[in-house]
Amino acid sequence: MEMKVTTLDGTAAGSVQLSDEIFGLEPRADLIQRCVRWQLAKRRAGTHKVKNRAEIARTGKKMYAQKGTGQARHGSARVNLWRGGGRAFGPVVRSHEHGLPKKVRALALRHALSAKAKDGDIILLDKATIKDGKTKGLLATFGKLGLTNALIIDGAQVEASFSAAARNIPNIDVLPVQGINVYDILRRGKLVLTKAALDALEARFK
Questions:
Q1: Which residue in 13, 22, 204 sits closest to 127, CA to CA?
Q2: Tell me, what CATH number does 140's domain have?
Q3: Is the pTM here over 0.70, yes or no?
């Protein structure tokens, strides 16, 4: 698959041949869904917690006599039946993470890239660099390219001034190629790859 390369100014900068092994697969929704579910579960803190009846600071003495009162039988005041008692079957501190093989994760990433390529939502940049590091100038540049909702992937290092300028633009994410992931690819409309990022991806999946 051949794609044109452009600069941030919108001028042509040649073309490159995209690998069919990375960008030419028929996207499988089940693989992509598994990877997104794994990512979202992995990032959950799992710190939600309630107190059960054993953790309530209240007397354990029997409330009143078993018989002769005409009321229902009751023992501890810590039970969940009473106001201020412990909660039954509430959340506890735990990890929500579950396993997903490395090969499945890598395959899901290739299918997510192929899905973007199939929909025509990939833009190739010569390089992601700006001179002054001003958000206003970068926003105007993105307007020329039609980028209002995009994930920008650069090489091993993102230029500091470009990253700083893009930081305050809503719906624009900038990541080094090591941080590319299925969830961020899907949550943004356009995927912008620099030539350095493309070379790194092809080297990774060879």
A1: 13
A2: 3.40.1370.10
A3: yes
